[in-house]
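Entry: Endonuclease/exonuclease/phosphatase domain-containing protein
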Amino acid sequence: MFQRKFIPILRSSNSLPKIPLSRRIMNDKFTVLSYNMLSPSYMWPQVYTYVPDQYKDWNYRHTLLELELLDKYKADIMCVQEMTKRDYIDYWQLKLGTTIGYGSKFIAKSPPKYWERHLLDLDGVAIFYNLQKFDFISSSGIYLNEFLDVFNPEELQYLKEKTLELTDGAGIKIDEKTLFEILSVKNQVSLFVCLKHKETGQVFIIINTHLYWKYDEVKLSQCIIIMRELSKIIDELLQDVRHSKVKIIFAGDLNSTKDSLVVKFLEGQILSHGALNMVNPMRPYFNSSIYNKVPEDFFTNTCYSGKLKGIFDYLWYNDKDLSLTKILRGKEVSDELEALMEFGLPNKDHPSDHIPILTEFQILH
C-alpha cells in the first residue's frame, strides 16, 4: 500500500500571511476532513463487480473506517457523507462522543420511492467536532426539495419549463421530466453547524452536503438552494450582538468536476444560466477551494467508483480568513491502483470508493 502523505503547503515568504506575534503562540490551527464513506445500501452488485466479496463486506469496511476516522486522521472537524442513520446512532455518535469527546449532528435523507429497506438504513450527512477546540452554538438541517421557494417567480417558471432527459446507468433515455419535477422528488440534504473556536473566539459555520450524482442542472439548482439558505442563516446569526463576523467552511461530495456548472457558480465565474440568478450570495465568505492552493498533480481523482472517476469532493473557504497549511495528498491512491492493476475502490486497504480529503488550516484573524 502506498502511504498517503499529510504534507505542508509551501509558500514563498512574500505570500505568507502576516500574523501578529501574539497570535502565533495561540493554538490557532485545526484539521478538517470530508469523506464519502460509501453506504452499505449503495454497494450495488452491478456497479462494484470489480471488488472481491470479502472487501464488499460491511463489517470489513467498517473496521477500516474506524481505523481511518478514529486513529489515522482524527480530524477536529469531520464532514461525512453516506453515513446511515443506524450507523450514526449505534456507533459513531456514541463512539466519538464518549471515547474522544466529540459533539455531532446528523440529518438523514427522506426515503425515495424505490426504498424497501428499514428507514434506519437511509444515509445522510454528519458533522463531528472536537469539543476541546470548539463550542457548539447552533445547527440546522434542510431537505433541499423543501426549499424551492428560494427561487423567484421567473426562476420557478424556468424550472417548470426546462426539460431534462432521464437516462439509465448505460446512458439510454428512459423518460423526460422538468427540472422542477426532478428537484421536487430528489432527497438530498444539507447540514449547517455553527461553532466557536475556543482559543481565538472565531465563529465558524460548517456546511456538509452530498449533491445528486446526475444532471448538471439538478446539481447546480441544489447548490443554489444551499447557498441562499446559508445566506439567511448568516443574516440571522449576525443579528445576534455576540457575533459580528463568521467564517465559512463548505464541505461535501458535490459530484461535480472542477469545470462544472456547480464549481463555476461557487467561484462566481458566470452570472446567468437560463433564468437562474447565478450570483452566489456566499461568494464574499469563501473565495477558494483547496484545489486552488495545491499543485495540479496532488490529486488525480477523489472518487474511484467503477466507470465514475473524478475529483468530486471539496472543501471551500476564504483565504483571507484561513491559511491552508497542510493537506493529505491523493495521488498516491491513483499510483497504488495503477501498480496493483486494480479497477477502482473499495479494496483491501480502502473502505470506500472515495478517499478522505484531510486538511489543516490556520486562523488568520
